[in-house]
Design a protein that fits this description.
Elements (H helix, E strand, L loop, with lengths): L10 E3 L9 E11 L6 E11 L3 E3 L1 H9 L8 H16 L3 E11 L2 E10 L13
Antiparallel strand pairs: 1-4, 2-3, 3-5, 5-6
Amino acid sequence: MSTQPAKELETFENPKLEPDYTIRIDIPEFTCLCPKTGQPDFATINVEYIPDSRCIELKSLKMYIWSFRNDGTFHEAVTNQILKDLVDACSPRFMRITADFNVRGGIYTSIVTEHRSEGWVPAEPVSLP
């Protein structure tokens, strides 16, 4: 069992390439440090993605998320860094990262960032009566 955080993300072969399907991962215990004060910032990170040939392995994702615990970083920067690193690791057809930071000084912050593979077209939404 690993006792150290790690920036390395592992992946595995997507067992079902077609049709498109969505993987949703909720991470309620994200922490980093405020770069101005050094105080901890807490957030829930939501990952939604449509995989292509690779999927993110969850234990490595846990260790990756843990690696931010002592990093001083702005909310916007860390959310976009997570998107970049996950996209680099698994090259999804689509990925959205939503970071909902806990209140700090009476202000809540929510950051949403997305990636779409070139040429990928989402399925039309289905509206049921």
